[in-house]
Amino acid sequence: MRKIKIAPFMPSEVEVNEISSNNAEIIAYPFESGYAVTLAHPLRRLILGSSIGYAPISVKIEGAAHEFDNIRGMHEDVAVFIINLKNIRFKIKDESDRVEVKYSFTGHKEVSAQDLNNDQIEVVNGDLPLATLNEDAELNFTVVISKGIGYVPSEDLRDEVSPEAIALDAFFTPVKKANYRIDPVLVEDNPNFEKIVFDIETDGQLGPVEAFTNALEVMNKQLSVFNGVLDVNISTAPLKRSSDDGELKPFMATVDSLGLSARSFNSLDRAGIKYLGELVLMSENEIKNIKNLGKKSLDEINDCLVEHGYGSDYELPDQTRVNLVKKIEQQKV
Predict the structure, then answer these.
(1) CB 3.0–4.6 Å: which of 32, 65, 80, 247 could bond 76 by disulfide?
(2) Which domain holds residue 128?
(3) Model confidence over 85-113: pLDDT tens digits?
């Protein structure tokens, strides 16, 4: 006989099976019927579509005017060289979003992906061939490697690369496979429960478990847009709000709702900054001194403040400042 419930059954078990460094199974259960696919499908899309990777976005080859040219002493045409280059998977060693790397090879040599390793970047599939040079060959080229998500065609990148360089189609996604299946699982003699089994494989730029946890973080941030609904008082009693509450409401927007990049958000989060009002209360110099906040993140935060009407020329009234400080302190208790 079916029992009356007042809340959905909460899954409690999670398992991680690392098949290899680039392949893992993530298992969670037990879900009530229908809940497993409801969660699994959007997570799969986020794993594939929001995982951050690295890709070459342009190459400038000395002696080559375009991708249909050829280089003296190099067996491959420039078009083949570019195809080989785009198949190489890079990692930027520091936290930079983009690096420019110069290479020079001379004489007889089988140039492979592992020859591109240096202090700035790391190649994760070093066995791939790049070019075959003879004795009198001289190959000099500069590659720009960028961080990104998804796929960006070369046409959309032409304005971002130098006129002498060849723009490349950029396939950033580091996830090679993200599949799931729903298996039945027994709970207290009830067979109507389900188990999600994710099978995730990456190219080595990041691990499969990291790709999964990043997707969870993105999902949580996307859902945070609805956090304001939780603040709505749905009581039938009359709602009484002080004028201060109404005045301060715009300042209480959470940082994760401002649409900042992951790097900027993480810097603010580590500094304990949760609300837009905290940034408004800070001077530009105080924001600049936030730990691990780079110039790009600083510019992004300043642009965000301007967008919300709180640029450097904005002056917060004294009483509003006092009320805002109290409000933020109350929220953080």
Answers:
(1) 80
(2) 52-171
(3) 999 999 999 878 999 999 999 999 999 99
The CATH number assigned to the domain holding 142 equals 2.170.120.12
Cα separations in angstroms, 253 against 153, 262, 293, 328 = 35, 17, 21, 11
Task: Please give the span between the terminal C-alpha atoms of the chain, in angstroms, as a whole number.
Answer: 46
Tell me the backbone φ, ψ of residue 15, rounded to 5 degrees: -130, 145
- Rounded Cα distance between 74 and 135, Å, is 10
Same domain? For 166 and 185 the reply is no
Q: Is residue 71 a contact partner of residue 61, using CB atoms and an 8 Å limit?
A: yes
d(CA 20, CA 90): 20
- CATH number for the domain including 24? 3.30.1360.10
Strand partners, 286: none
One domain, residues 179 and 44: yes
What number of helices (H) and strands (E) belong to the chain?
10, 14
Cα separations in angstroms, 177 against 75, 174, 198: 34, 9, 10
pLDDT mean across residues, the chain: 87
What's the CA gap between 86 and 98, in Å, rounded?
A: 16
Please give the model's pTM, rounded to 2 decimal places: 0.65
